Amino acid sequence: MEAEANSGSLEDSWAFIQRPGEGCRTVPLAGHVGFDSLPDQLVNKSVSQGFCFNILCVGETGLGKSTLMDTLFNTKFEGEPATHTQPGVQLRSNTYDLQESNVGLKLTIVSTVGFGDQINKEDSYKPIVEFIDAQFEAYLQEELKIRRVLHAYHDSRIHACLYFIAPTGHSLKSLDLVTMKKLDSKVNIIPIIAKSDAISKSELTKFKIKITSELVSNGVQIYQFPTDDESVAEINGTMNAHLPFAVIGSTEELKIGNKMMKARQYPWGTVQVENEAHCDFVKLREMLIRVNMEDLREQTHSRHYELYRRCKLEEMGFQDTDPDSKPFSLQETYEAKRNEFLGELQKKEEEMRQMFVQRVKEKEAELKEAEKELHEKFDRLKKLHQDEKKKLEDKKKSLDDEVNAFKQRKTAAELLQSQSSQAGGSQTLKRDKEKKNNPWLCTE
Ligand code: GDP
């Protein structure tokens, strides 16, 4: 009773404690305080920490991925051209430190190698999906650590995926549709028509419309440049209508008029990379680097990573609410999971014990059966042995009898022989005597 009364009064007292943000009032300041420098502080801190940006280039070998990256960042990134003989799709990742004014950028360029080169392209998207997930997983693991060093952590999550479409002028290949569909919930996809100098102006207009309608009808979500920020809403809105950008890449500088310009020279003329009448390269650079780089980073964290994190934690059994929609804290989830785990462990232990007992019983029965069989075999052998022994004894007895009878017969025969030899001896003597007396007597 006392405890109940106490808990009641405690709850009442909680009701009077104001939570942060509740009943917040606006008060005027009498003079300058200085917290209006916070945005500058933030900028300074970010600049001193540096930035990182990760681009994934997906597209068939030879579509101009490396050339476009060199053109976009106005440098020559090293890297050997890929062959068309890869057994499967791989991803090649390179990180570079770039500096512009006082801003440092750690740029990672990940490129597909061997994409579209296999006869069976069914699983071509898998290595790409796995790579993106692996970067999310690495970040999640860092976040879940007890001692986190996120500020020093090299964030390798992909911020933008440039999807290179071949300038066929027809429709999207099924490989492109499947891959983009698999990627759209994991990364900001910016589709681009590569090597667009290979397609005529009228064909290009039709091709863009066709691609857009195919993406919509297949439910592929591509990255939309944000229009919620007033300062960029107009330009972003206009640029969204230009997607997919038709680009040309070249690091070759040609003299056009008085200026050196990036261009590709053909026997019939020159195509200028940075001429908006020739291609959308400038639009792409503007949107990707100069206007929306931060939004791409932000979307990656707040949308794609958040989705990955949520699914992963739910998969692990973590939830924000219990089945009755009441808030469920991490601690409670942990306890529930621990109890569930211990329960399962006990169940498993019991099952194993039962199995062990059952196995012992089975083994015992098996041994008993074997013992019984051995006894039976022993008895059988013993009887067989006895019968054999008896037979041998009988045989011995009959042989002994035979030997005795033989001995008796032998003795009798010997006796008879000696008697007859004695009788034969006395007759010969008598005959010899008669011969002496009468030499003419014939004895034979
Ligand atoms: P990757 O395999 O996708 O990285 O392709 P590369 O950047 O190595 O380019 C392959 C070939 O295409 C090279 O000879 C490039 O000069 C050429 N190339 C690159 N971009 C363009 C382009 O916009 N138009 C044309 N016509 N050729 C290009």
Report on this model:
The chain is of the alpha/beta class and 444 residues long. Helices cover 52% and strands 13% of the residues. It contains ten helices and nine strands. The chain has a six-stranded mixed sheet with strand order 2-3-1-4-5-6, with helices on both faces. It has a three-stranded antiparallel sheet with strand order 7-8-9, with no helix packed on it. Strand 2 and strand 3 form a beta hairpin. The radius of gyration is 52 Å and the shape is elongated. The structure holds guanosine-5'-diphosphate.
Brief account:
Septins polymerize into heterooligomeric protein complexes that form filaments. The protein is built from 10 helices and 9 strands.
What is the N-to-C order of secondary-structure elements (H for helix, E for strand)?
Answer: HHEHEEHEHEHHEEEEHHH
Count of distinct strands: 9
Task: Tell me the strand percentage band.
Answer: 5-15%
Ligand species:
guanosine-5'-diphosphate
Class from helix and strand fractions: alpha/beta
Runs with pLDDT <50, length 5+? 1-8
Shape: elongated
Largest sheet: 6 strands, mixed
| Rounded radius of gyration (Å) | 52 Å
Mean pLDDT: 87
Q: What's the arrangement of secondary structure elements?
A:
Blueprint: H1 2-15, H2 38-49, E1 51-58, H3 65-72, E2 90-100, E3 103-113, H4 126-144, E4 160-165, H5 174-183, E5 189-193, H6 201-217, H7 230-240, E6 245-246, E7 253-256, E8 259-266, E9 269-272, H8 281-291, H9 293-315, H10 330-437
Parallel strand pairs: 1-3, 1-4, 4-5, 5-6
Antiparallel strand pairs: 2-3, 7-8, 8-9
Helix pairs in contact: 8-9
The structure holds guanosine-5'-diphosphate.
